[in-house]
Amino acid sequence: MARIKIGVIGAGSVAWSSKLIHDLLHMPTLYGSKVYLMDINEERLRLLKGFAERYMSEIGGNYEFITTTDRLEAIRDADIVINTAMYGGHQYYEEMRRISEKHGYYRGVNSTEWNMVSDYHTIWGYYQWKLAMDIAGETEEYAPNAWLIQLANPVFELTTLIARETKARVIGLCHGHMGYREIAHTIGLDPDKVDFEAIGFNHVIWLTRFRYNGEDAYPLIDKWIEEKAEEYWQEWRKTQVNPFDIQMSPAAVDMYRRYGLFPVGDTVRGGTWMYHWNLETKKQWFGPTGGPDSEIGWEIYLTHGEAWLEELEEALKNNSPLAPMFPKGLTGETIVPLINSLIHDEPGTYQVNVLNMGAIEGLPDNIAVEIPATVDGKGVKRPQGLRLPGRIMKLVLWPRMLRAEMAIEGFLEGGFQVLVDWLMLDPRTKSEKQAEQAWQEILSIPGNEEMKKHYR
Amino acid sequence: MARIKIGVIGAGSVAWSSKLIHDLLHMPTLYGSKVYLMDINEERLRLLKGFAERYMSEIGGNYEFITTTDRLEAIRDADIVINTAMYGGHQYYEEMRRISEKHGYYRGVNSTEWNMVSDYHTIWGYYQWKLAMDIAGETEEYAPNAWLIQLANPVFELTTLIARETKARVIGLCHGHMGYREIAHTIGLDPDKVDFEAIGFNHVIWLTRFRYNGEDAYPLIDKWIEEKAEEYWQEWRKTQVNPFDIQMSPAAVDMYRRYGLFPVGDTVRGGTWMYHWNLETKKQWFGPTGGPDSEIGWEIYLTHGEAWLEELEEALKNNSPLAPMFPKGLTGETIVPLINSLIHDEPGTYQVNVLNMGAIEGLPDNIAVEIPATVDGKGVKRPQGLRLPGRIMKLVLWPRMLRAEMAIEGFLEGGFQVLVDWLMLDPRTKSEKQAEQAWQEILSIPGNEEMKKHYR
């Protein structure tokens, strides 16, 4: 089995990195490899290193974990580069959101139809994109044979951009498609026995196949909606504590009715402004928390992230066993099995984001689609000619693609006009003065000096 | 010289048909041909027939002019089918506009970014599109070797639709590109000596080449803007009587500044809502009439149409000479020279609308672009690899293309959702209830029964 070098950029996201380490420890075929955990936050790295060593000694495994604040040290000659880095702290984005709202843009100028996800930073993600492009550029130069796994959002835009503009062999990854399991579970099916397919763009994927025991199981969804949904929602409205508990929400069912296929995972967080006008609307569609992308749900999410960190710190300090914090066996995240397939030329099917190149009919070749594909040592082998209904193509994917193209244009070419026109397609805009002033103030916050220059 | 059959559908548009007849009379290579003038308005046909015969006897020529209310009679075995038919009277669309405005959609739900033209009927043009598709279908069946010249708007959408969905050999035609002559004239150049190119989509074309005496003449536009524009506008604001006199308006110059190329012809009527919020805004950008697509300008246009009809009727009644009503020689409309090129395999360069197929880089193959192309007996030979700046591609053509795709999807597949989502991208929308109610009332007016069924 090959001993490889894995460079993890942005490893300081402890909740995510600890799961990665867990899965690596459960993948003996990669034993002997070196894992470079890179971040600019040294305290997090120390914590992570402590966790990795302790957990390895607890459950067994054989890796060399190296922590570093030097990005190039992690990337140079790596076989796998993982980008999971988010530029800036959450507060940076919350400040741009606050200013947006002052100017009439509830939840921020970055939120648009089919991208309401609060940290899927597109038009205002200048530094995040720059960071991703720097990582891709360094991978291209210092690890030309590496696979670059793009986990940092916005996966849709960044996979597209990196694949278009660099030679890095990029694969975008997200776990949102696992939402099919919640669908199955809720309507009373065993998720492990479901045969599913969900395709589209990252965070905008639609259930194109849903089979159970060899038969189409869509009728079972319809039956659940007709007979059980109301009762389910009544209970859910009383008990929803996790704002992400929306896979079977009224929003999801309404989207299914309107667009013809069931939305999967983060797709449910999207939709046009009709689901998102304000907190009241969000509560109606996404439950009492308003879903993850309301002011309530997002606050819960941000707080929860810190809670997990504290839990881990506590466990390390007390020398209590770590295994109970994780599921038995692999977590279900596909990154470690995917790495195994790439490195050992062991074909497997994974949900990946790659340039379309004929995979989904009716979309340009050079836009990143999310599809199930065979991955082996040669990389991603796309299926060809997958299809989505015209309604989803033209009412969902095209508007979403337009936003991606506008943001890419803005990132590559700069200029104020793209920011203005971004908001001229937004039902929250009442005048171009409003749009201009919102952007002027956003560009003027401390830290945005370079971004302001780019967009002047 | 070939004697051919030309079928003109919607010939009752007298202002346009009289110019067609004028040009035919000035094209001896087509003498001996039969011209079928088809309309459902018999009175107009009588008037037109009277005009054609009188004018031919006045200035010479040799055609057989046949009027008919039977569309198939005009199309069957034709060599050229011209569709210039507009479904319904202007009042039909004015009623939909009136209802739209009642619900907060100034100038109607059909007006969108980069299509503010008041009779460029896209999303509410159900019957107009159906008529065009019927004509294309009959051409396909009864005149399979004919060229179908699509003059009726929306040329962009209908050329795309017909080329995708039928085998009719369609060429979309518009005279908006002639606006380059106004640019030249205003800045003091002889329009006849200008070498120009303007490309994009119909009504959304941008000056990609503007040369004079072998040199780039864009600097002369810049100089005019810097030194003369203010003075020109001062005078223009006092004297504008023709609402279409906007080629050198502040709107045009502002678009040039924002997007990097000068907008040509009807393109100036477009833009985002920032040029069109209300009459006051329109006046600021398009002069005291508010441009052709304000309530003032549009009223002038509709009235003017009737005025020309009366003038012609008067001239016929009085037996006064008709030639003074027309320019000397060809009008400058390209349709008759184009027919000559197609029929006699005489290569010529024309501004046409055809499926892209590589003509403009970065656009799908199956969308109709407006480009200059060589036309001969084999049809349109597209140039390849024309380019537009990213700013225009992503901020103008992509949003415009999205609207076309949404309208095409709506026409082909129906359903209420496309109408709702059409308005969910509109800054005039404040709630989905507003959008739904506007459409419900529009679909409920007398005459819209079939359309309502289609969109239910």
TrEMBL record, chains A, B:
Stretches assigned to coiled coil: none
Pfam families: Glyco_hydro_4, Glyco_hydro_4C
InterPro entries given in the database record: GH4_Enzyme_sf (IPR053715), GlycHydrolase_4_CS (IPR019802), Glyco_hydro_4 (IPR001088), Glyco_hydro_4_C (IPR022616), Lactate_DH/Glyco_Ohase_4_C (IPR015955), NAD(P)-bd_dom_sf (IPR036291)
Domain Glycosyl hydrolase family 4 C-terminal: 199-429
Keywords: Carbohydrate metabolism, Glycosidase, Hydrolase, Manganese, Metal-binding, NAD
RNA-binding listed as a keyword: no
GO molecular function, a single term: metal ion binding
PROSITE patterns according to UniProt: GLYCOSYL_HYDROL_F4 (PS01324)
BP-aspect Gene Ontology terms: carbohydrate metabolic process
Cofactor entry: Mn(2+); NAD(+)
Record bears the keyword Nuclease: no
SUPFAM superfamilies: LDH C-terminal domain-like (SSF56327), NAD(P)-binding Rossmann-fold domains (SSF51735)
Superkingdom: Archaea
Membership in a protein family: Belongs to the glycosyl hydrolase 4 family.
Protein name: Alpha-galactosidase
Upper lineage: Archaea, Thermoproteota, Thermoprotei, Thermofilales, Thermofilaceae
